[in-house]
Fold this protein.
Amino acid sequence: MSQKTMKALVLEEAFHLNLKDVPLPEVPPGYARVKMLAISICGSDIHAYRGNSLLLTYPRVLGHELCGVIDEINGAPGDLKVGDRVSVFPYLSCGSCVACRQHRENCCTSLKVLGVHVEGGIAEYVSVPIENLLKVPETMPPKVAALIEPLSVSAHAVRRGKVAAGDHVLVLGAGPIGLGVAEAAKAAGADVRVADISATRRNFVAERFGHVVMDPSAADFDMELRKWTHEDYPNKVIDSTGSKASNSTAINYLAAAGDLIFVGLQSDTLGLSDPSFHIREATVYASRVAQMQDFRWVLDQIESGNIRAERMITDVSDFAHAKESFEEWVSRGGAVFKGIIEVE
């Protein structure tokens, strides 16, 4: 390719985005370059824009929820070829640390994430290891395939909690990850309820997806939990809020001998009532990002109609207006559930 530069949306510093020319990413051995087709905006991208990211340094090209088409391959491609439509697995692991040796690459001690530690995909091209690409059907719209990543984070939490048919699953938080948890848990056969203090989020989840929603701030919340579970309480509680207050109270909603899974990340100390924890003999799990098997499972579930990814999308922009659209979506807050930038 004679082209030497590309357009990318660069976060120069907090609240300062710039759509500008940057060097075209190289394709070292074992890597492939992917021409972007669609980028989904994540809550972590918005946190970075506001200066609230725990891990990101500036300047940075954001974006890790990605779909594109393979432009160049440097190495053994396996079943992939130039021109294939792919979902990008945005986590770069070392392959040799204690976690990687246990096939827990998502817990790699030097894990790097596109758009956080290294340049991301709100750009015309991105370069990633060949093994980080998952082929998706040509019939799947790129804006749907871009949602495989956040839905896989949700699916990983469901898998970590060993959710199965017949479980009562309470999802705390009705944002994109919480909604994805509800969709994945339902696909696994569980009886699911979604709780959020935001009426806007509750209404979105109920109206677009038909999930039963609850208000955890309501006076009758505890009574409704007991009524739903025949006085047992949910045996799985999955907290996607990233809220210290929610993290601290989640144990109170859990059944005896139940499982509590934290998928939302917050920066403070995780606090649980020790008596509440012990009398339940509860099992507490952390759920960190996703693994490739979660990507494959989500792809299968979207294709089968069990996970309804496209209903998550509320806003779409073209790449030329990515800066203006990103800033507008941030200003509208919760009114934008999932914004997609399309690159054509």
